[in-house]
Amino acid sequence: MKNKYLISIAIIIISFLMGTYFYGQVPDKIPTHWNAEGEADGFSSKEFGLFFIPGISLVLFGLMIIFPKIDPTNNIIKFEKYYFNLVIILLLFLLSLQIMTILWSLGNEIDVMYIVVPGISVLLYYSGIMMENTERNWFAGIRTPWTMSSDKVWKKTHKLGSKLFKISAVLIFLSLILGVFDIWIMVVLLLGLVVFTFVYSYLEYKKEKSN
User: Fold this and answer.
1) Which of 21, 82, 154, 167 could form a disulfide with 130, with the two C-beta atoms 3.0–4.6 Å apart?
2) How far, in Å, CA of 195 to CA of 182, rounded?
3) Given this model, what pLDDT does residue 164 score?
4) pLDDT confidence of residue 210
5) Which of 174, 172, 146, 142 is nearest to 159 (CA)?
C-alpha cells in the first residue's frame, strides 16, 4: 500500500502546487459552481477557488487512512487494494475539477459536463468493482441495518449492487456521448440505486430469518 499512499500524496501536492502557480494569473473572483446547463452561476474568491479542492483532498485522504484503523470489524484490510484504488480515483476526480476551475478562470470555458459526468461514471463503475470484493465493515459499501447484521445479506446485496453500479455508470456515460444527458437522469439512477439496495437488503434479511 506504500505506493498507493505515495501516489495519493503526489496528487494532493500537485493540486496545491497548481493553486499556488496560478494564484497570480487568475482574477480575484473565479467560478466555483455551475448549473445543470454547464453555465457558471457561482463565484468565490480566488483563495477559496484555488485551494478549497486541495484542502478537501487532504482531509479526505486523511479520513480514508484513518477509517481502516478504527473499523471495529478490521475487515477493510482484506480489500484494501480496491479501497485505496478508489481513493486515488477520487483524488484524480477532484484534481480534474480543480483544473476545470482554473481553465474557466483563465477564460477557457470548456463544457464542464465532459469533465464531471465521465468522472462520476468512473467513480461509480469502480465502486461496483470494489463492491465485488468488500467484506462487512463500517465505512465502505452498502451499509444498511440488515447488511451489517448478516454476512450473507452483505454479500448478496453487494453482488447485486456491484452490477447495478456498473450499469448505472455505463448508462450515465452513454447518455452524455449520445447527447441526451440530463442531470435528472443521474439523480434518478442514483436515488434508485439507494432505494433498491436498501429494500433488497431488508427483504433478504427477512428471508434469511424466516428460513
Assistant:
1) 82
2) 20
3) 95
4) 84
5) 142
- Amino acid letter, residue 37: E
pLDDT value at residue 49? 93
Say yes or no: 67 and 146 in one domain: no
The span from the CA of 54 to the CA of 149, in Å, is 37
If you average pLDDT over every residue of the chain, what do you get? 93
Number of structural domains, the chain? 2
From the list 178, 148, 157, the residue with the least C-alpha distance to 71 is 148
Q: Are 53 and 157 part of one and the same domain?
A: no
Residue after which a domain boundary falls, among 80, 110, 140: 110
Residue with cell 502557480: 21
Within the chain, which residues score under 50 in pLDDT? Answer: none
3-state secondary structure of 124: helix
Which of 115, 87, 101 shows the shortest CA–CA distance to 10? 87
The DSSP secondary structure of 30-56, one letter per residue, reads EEEEE-TTS-EEEEEEHHHHHHHHHHH
